[in-house]
Write a structure and sequence with these properties.
The complex is a heterodimer of chains A (587) and B (232).
Chain A: E1 6-14, H1 18-29, E2 34-38, E3 54-55, H2 66-76, H3 83-103, E4 117-124, E5 131-136, H4 142-157, E6 160-163, E7 165-172, E8 178-185, E9 190-201, H5 222-229, E10 234-235, E11 240-247, H6 257-260, E12 264-266, H7 274-277, H8 287-299, E13 311-314, H9 320-326, H10 328-338, E14 347-356, E15 360-361, E16 367-372, E17 375-384, E18 389-390, H11 402-424, H12 433-444, H13 455-469, E19 473-474, H14 476-493, H15 507-531, E20 540-541, H16 549-552, E21 554-559, E22 564-569
Parallel strand pairs in A: 1-2, 1-9, 2-6, 9-17, 15-18, 19-20
Antiparallel strand pairs in A: 3-5, 4-5, 7-8, 8-9, 10-21, 11-14, 12-13, 13-14, 16-17, 21-22
Helix pairs in contact in A: 1-4, 1-11, 2-3, 3-11, 5-15, 13-14, 13-15, 14-15
Chain B: E1 2-7, E2 17-22, H1 32-42, E3 62-65, E4 68-71, E5 84-87, E6 94-96, E7 99-100, H2 103-111, H3 131-135, H4 154-158, H5 166-176, H6 184-190, H7 205-209, H8 216-231
Parallel strand pairs in B: 1-5
Antiparallel strand pairs in B: 1-2, 3-4, 3-5, 6-7
Classes of the chains: A alpha/beta (587), B alpha+beta (232).
Amino acid sequence: MTLPPARKFDTLVIGAGGGGLRAALQLAQADASVAVVSKVFPIRSHTVAAQGGINAALANVLPDNWHWHMYDTIKGSDYLGDQDAIEYMCRAASNIVIELEHAGVPFSRLPDGRIYQRRFGGQSQNFGGEQAARACAAADRTGHAILHTLYQQNIRARTHFFDEYFAVDLIRDEQGYILGVLALEIETGEPLLIEAKTTLIATGGAGQLFRTNTNARINTGDGMAMALRAGIPLQDMEFFQFHPTGIAGKGMLISEGVRGEGGFLVNKDGERFMERYAPHAKDLASRDVVSRAIYTEVAEGRGCGAQGDHVFLKLDHLGEETVAARLPAIRELARTFLHIDPAHTPIPVYPTAHYTMGGIPTDRHGRVVVPAGQGEEAIPGLYAVGECACVSVHGANRLGGNSLLDIVVFGRAAGNDIIEYLRENRFHRPLNVASVEQALGRLARWERQGEGETVDGLRRELQQIMEQHCGVFRSQAVLEQGLDKVVQVQQRLANAVLRDHSRVFNTARIEALELENLVELALATVTSALGRTESRGAHSRVDHPQRDDERWLRHTLFFREGRTLDYKPVRMKPMTVESFAPKERTY
Amino acid sequence: MKFLVHRYNPDTDAAPYMQPFELHDVRPGMMLRDALLELKASQDESLSFRHSCGEGVCGSDGLNVNGRNVLACITPVAELREPVTVRPLPKMPVIRDLVVDLSQFYHHYRSVKPYLIAYDPEPEVERLQSPEQRAELDGLYECILCACCSTACPSFWWNPQQFRGPAALLQAWRFIVDSRDQATAQRLDELEGPYRLFRCHTIMSCTDVCPKGLNPTRAIGRIKQLMLTHQV
């Protein structure tokens, strides 16, 4: 067979969100040749939609330090987060935010000219004391501000971009080294091999698994699925975050910053119900806690609206000036999609699929690690950062403001480690043709003509199944049914066909490849959720309502081959400080 | 609801054409993007267009609808006159259907050096910027590069090679006016000459169509003003 044309770089980054771009910047500034492959033009990546802020204990507004941030993150993770990685992230936070400011991020400012910080859920002073204000914000467009700045700095650093190239599969050799990726140029429909000494996966999350979600259409977990197909397990996939405040029935995200600025939730009786669920933190409890509370209010008949299927997020008491200055994009969203002005009218909200806590297992240098003997070993040349990765700093539940932090901290860390790796591994390894052929097979499969189900119909069905069977509350029976249904979708997908076989900018083909990825991840998510017979963080089992540290203070690993599960210990030992032992988690 | 959609597949079509569609299931609150997705799913899978976030922040789905540049995902179909005529952004090379080649648009963006340039040593803390100084960036930094403005600008149509266009110039001003940036002279020099900046004739199409409510015309006016005082 003829191989596709190839390009060679020192290092390859797949995905141009904040994680990929922060890594690329580090590498380009170190004079490595960097290729960034992205299926959309970089600033269309989903980091652009992050709203509320990025956590760092700058203490610009209220007293703070990184150690308190570390405690909050571990508690927020329901003790499933790895404490060394969390210490690393929280220690790095202040520097990395200052660095972003220096790079040009237009942060909002305090009267004295320092960066504005707002209150966010799960933040405390002094290890569980008073509310902290830790989220550094650029109005309610923090992700947009950070992503654009990182892209701009990459323009300055002359990073090489492959815009609108879809990554099909990783290329590996017999020794297990990752040699690059087979990509599809969307504009021409032609495959392209990109060879590199290191490959960083930064492809984001898989919110499109669920019917109602806050995510962009591109969030189909492509990198995670590529890892699975390369024989790499996915970690903690049962932990999927449902954001408490998506616009009811539609899904657009309404930032936690709204509650951080003083907004609160009410049920149909006008009761501020979070006082019952989290007497201390109230509306600023962790996201899993607030989502369950909203779900429960609605399930018990205290929902708002004609169908009683949502609650209201009130911010009319904040005053028009605060809403205009601090939450302009939220106001715009509510006006566009609900025809209301939230400065005067409350917003109908409901828990909405938002964030993939699980992902490709890595260490705190971004190196992808897999079980080996009694411990773990890194896959040579392979890295992952951001939502597609599982370091794990978010454990069973991510705190708001920690995802933007995660991507820049570990994007930089991975960049630095890659520079080290390149020093030791100076030459490209020979291409493994068999692996390329396998990847090309993924494309060839969709050339099939004839009758068959449509990709779009199957995608909708999958999203419906995931919503019904793997939502905020779960049980053995419901998950088992869900697994059966996802397996059926997988079998039917094997027989689906495209009507459109054209080459140029064939979005139907891209959507077919994306759906294959989503199905892999649905299986990983439901299987992992079935395995974990306890409730922890975002994973709530009605049939196992308690957290069970004895049996379950450990990470899940899902392997594609045979859909098997394995487990590994949580890293309880931080880098330098005392570890935080699990205790009852209340807000 | 009736639609007329621009179709062109270079593999098979000798020339572009307008294809009629009819959508029966128009839901309340439906946006144009939802409608196009529905048409693609239920009637013709080969209909191609860019889209992603669905809430007007990623800037992927700029389209010309009934003669006006809009973002499909925040344009309610209920407000559109029938048949809804959907074309790609004007005067850009068409790759396929509603997908245009924005290389030139991005080239102009890169050409204005859209990044902060500072020569002073970096302090170990943030650079200070007063809320008033920061407020100067409002209405500028929010740009999502959807290209609705530049592709609505007659000056950009006529001089696409030389005129930077409203989106790029908005970003030029975003950095000139940033109290932290120290490259004003260099930025103004870059925009010298009759074309790059001064092709703007204040037609204001850019401001009229910007889906984010930004005002490139005002930004361009302020660069021109500064340019004059700078030269004196």
